[in-house]
Protein backbone atom coordinates (compact mmCIF):
# COMPACT_ATOMS: atom_id res chain seq x y z
CA UNK A 1 0.00 0.00 0.00
CA UNK A 2 2.84 2.44 0.82
CA UNK A 3 4.45 1.70 -2.54
CA UNK A 4 1.20 2.52 -4.30
CA UNK A 5 0.99 5.90 -2.50
CA UNK A 6 4.63 6.66 -3.42
CA UNK A 7 3.76 6.15 -7.09
CA UNK A 8 0.38 7.91 -7.13
CA UNK A 9 1.46 11.11 -5.27
CA UNK A 10 4.08 12.26 -7.84
CA UNK A 11 1.76 11.37 -10.73
CA UNK A 12 -1.06 13.35 -9.13
CA UNK A 13 1.24 16.33 -8.53
CA UNK A 14 2.37 16.22 -12.16
CA UNK A 15 -1.22 16.13 -13.43
CA UNK A 16 -2.21 19.04 -11.17
CA UNK A 17 0.79 21.13 -12.28
CA UNK A 18 0.11 20.37 -15.94
CA UNK A 19 -3.53 21.39 -15.61
CA UNK A 20 -2.50 24.65 -13.96
CA UNK A 21 0.03 25.44 -16.68
CA UNK A 22 -2.47 24.79 -19.47
CA UNK A 23 -5.20 26.89 -17.88
CA UNK A 24 -3.10 30.07 -17.49
CA UNK A 25 -2.96 32.65 -20.26
CA UNK A 26 0.20 34.52 -19.25
CA UNK A 27 1.80 34.06 -22.68
CA UNK A 28 -1.18 35.35 -24.63
CA UNK A 29 -1.17 38.98 -23.50
CA UNK A 30 -0.79 41.67 -26.16
CA UNK A 31 1.37 44.68 -25.75
CA UNK A 32 -0.58 47.86 -25.18
CA UNK A 33 2.33 50.24 -25.80
CA UNK A 34 1.63 53.07 -28.21
CA UNK A 35 3.03 52.78 -31.74
CA UNK A 36 3.85 55.81 -33.85
CA UNK A 37 1.52 56.00 -36.84
CA UNK A 38 2.71 57.46 -40.14
CA UNK A 39 0.98 58.78 -43.24
CA UNK A 40 2.04 57.89 -46.79
CA UNK A 41 2.19 61.09 -48.82
CA UNK A 42 3.61 59.57 -52.00
CA UNK A 43 6.06 56.90 -53.12
CA UNK A 44 8.92 59.41 -53.41
CA UNK A 45 8.43 61.27 -50.10
CA UNK A 46 9.27 59.84 -46.69
CA UNK A 47 6.59 58.87 -44.22
CA UNK A 48 5.14 61.65 -42.08
CA UNK A 49 4.27 61.18 -38.39
CA UNK A 50 0.51 61.39 -37.87
CA UNK A 51 -0.50 60.12 -34.41
CA UNK A 52 0.04 57.45 -31.79
CA UNK A 53 -1.97 54.26 -32.14
CA UNK A 54 -2.29 51.47 -29.56
CA UNK A 55 -2.78 48.71 -32.17
CA UNK A 56 -5.73 47.22 -30.25
CA UNK A 57 -9.25 46.50 -31.41
CA UNK A 58 -10.62 46.47 -34.95
CA UNK A 59 -11.00 50.18 -35.76
CA UNK A 60 -8.36 51.45 -38.20
CA UNK A 61 -6.17 54.17 -36.69
CA UNK A 62 -6.86 57.52 -38.41
CA UNK A 63 -6.47 61.25 -37.82
CA UNK A 64 -8.75 63.67 -39.67
CA UNK A 65 -9.62 60.94 -42.18
CA UNK A 66 -5.98 60.02 -42.95
CA UNK A 67 -5.13 56.40 -42.22
CA UNK A 68 -2.05 55.78 -40.06
CA UNK A 69 0.45 53.04 -40.91
CA UNK A 70 3.39 51.52 -39.04
CA UNK A 71 6.76 52.29 -40.60
CA UNK A 72 8.55 49.09 -41.62
CA UNK A 73 11.97 49.95 -42.98
CA UNK A 74 11.54 52.86 -45.40
CA UNK A 75 7.90 52.01 -46.14
CA UNK A 76 4.75 52.91 -44.25
CA UNK A 77 2.70 49.89 -45.12
CA UNK A 78 1.56 47.98 -42.02
CA UNK A 79 -2.04 48.82 -41.04
CA UNK A 80 -2.47 50.07 -37.48
CA UNK A 81 -5.60 49.81 -35.35
CA UNK A 82 -6.78 51.90 -32.42
CA UNK A 83 -9.17 51.18 -29.58
CA UNK A 84 -10.21 54.07 -27.35
TrEMBL record:
The UniProt keywords, alphabetically, are: Signal
InterPro entries in UniProt: DUF6520
Q: Name one Pfam family in it.
A: DUF6520
Signal peptide location: 1-21
Protein name per Swiss-Prot or TrEMBL: DUF333 domain-containing protein
Look up and give the organism this protein is from.
Answer: Flavobacterium pectinovorum
